[in-house]
Amino acid sequence: MVEIKSIEKPDDRRDFPRGHLEVVNLTGLVFGKATFEPGWRWTESVKDLTGTDLCEVHHNGYCVEGRMRVMTRDGSESEVGPGDVFVLEPGHDAWVVGDEPCVMFDFAGGIGDYAKAR
């Protein structure tokens, strides 16, 4: 089997303040491309859509451009930048660092539920 789709023609697009998510669904893979503008922060831009205090989505990601700071439920912080591959457990806040957009690819199945109104 070969299945090919372009992220340029996503199956779903979700817009939220200062950003958007494009999602492609393939057999066995949900792939997302997220673009976050300067000033974006999860607790300010997405929290009200989800009804949770922190992001409760698991992320397997790759940062294409820009920088993002992440704070987990226990208060620890890390920063992700271009070329970084990361795993991020549910229960976190995140925000764009600097004055350029942050673009990330996410290939965890949970990204299919990201920024969906509950």
Separation, N- and C-terminal Cα atoms: 35 Å
Number of structural units classed as domains:
1
Write down the secondary-structure element order: EEEHHEEEEEE
Task: Assign the CATH class.
Answer: Mainly Beta
Radius of gyration: 14 Å
Could you tell me the CATH topology label: Jelly Rolls
pLDDT below 50 for ≥5 consecutive residues: which ranges? Answer: none
Question: What is the SS-derived class?
Answer: mainly beta
Sheet with the most strands, sense and barrel status: 6 strands, antiparallel
CATH architecture: Sandwich
CATH homologous superfamily? Answer: Jelly Rolls
Shape: globular
User: What percent of the residues sit in helical stretches (DSSP H or I)?
Assistant: under 10%
Strand portion, in percent? 35-45%
What average pLDDT do the residues reach? 95
Strand order of the largest sheet: 1-2-3-9-4-7
Total strand count, please?
Answer: 9
Quickly count the helices.
2
Organism: Actinomadura monticuli
Protein name: Cupin domain-containing protein
Domain Cupin type-2: 59-106
InterPro entries: Cupin_2, RmlC-like_jellyroll, RmlC_Cupin_sf
